[in-house]
Amino acid sequence: MEKKPNTRAKGEQLESIANDYLNARGLALITRNFQCKLGEIDLIMQDNDTLVFVEVRYRRSNRFGSAAETVDRRKQRKLLRTAQLFLKIHHLGQSTPCRFDIVGISPQSRTDTLCFDWIQNAFGTSDSF
User: Fold this and answer.
1) Which domain holds residue 10?
2) What is the CATH number of the domain that holds 47?
3) pLDDT number for residue 3
4) What is the count of structural domains for the chain?
5) What's CA 16's distance to the chain center, in Å?
6) Which parts of the chain fold into alpha helices (H)?
7) What torsion, rounded to 10 degrees, do the Cα atoms 6, 111, 56, 23 define?
8) Which residues make beta-bridge pairs with 129?
9) Whose C-alpha in 5, 23, 48, 85 is 20 to 30 A from the C-alpha of 92?
């Protein structure tokens, strides 16, 4: 099922905003929207010697939980498997330091500014298998 054009455009815009946010904190972009049959990773970045797989989530409201809380075990497994394929394709071994971060984005109430909830090392292989 294809995403609506407006949803895709909004997602790309938020990924760009998250990329800028992380760049300002010292991370360097490697690639955006790595896709394969297993899934998609929004941002893949470098943080010193660590490869960082980033899931970007947006919520208009925290009424039903934060944006980061929407990354459930099923989504974590998809991200892990997709990351493993990325590592294999790029000939990066088991010794490559990696982590999975979540950037939750939500609007600040009563203003046009955005709030960021950056969770570093949000989950790992032992959390999902």
Assistant:
1) 5-128
2) 3.40.1350.10
3) 56
4) 1
5) 12
6) 5-23, 73-89, 125-128
7) 110
8) none
9) 23
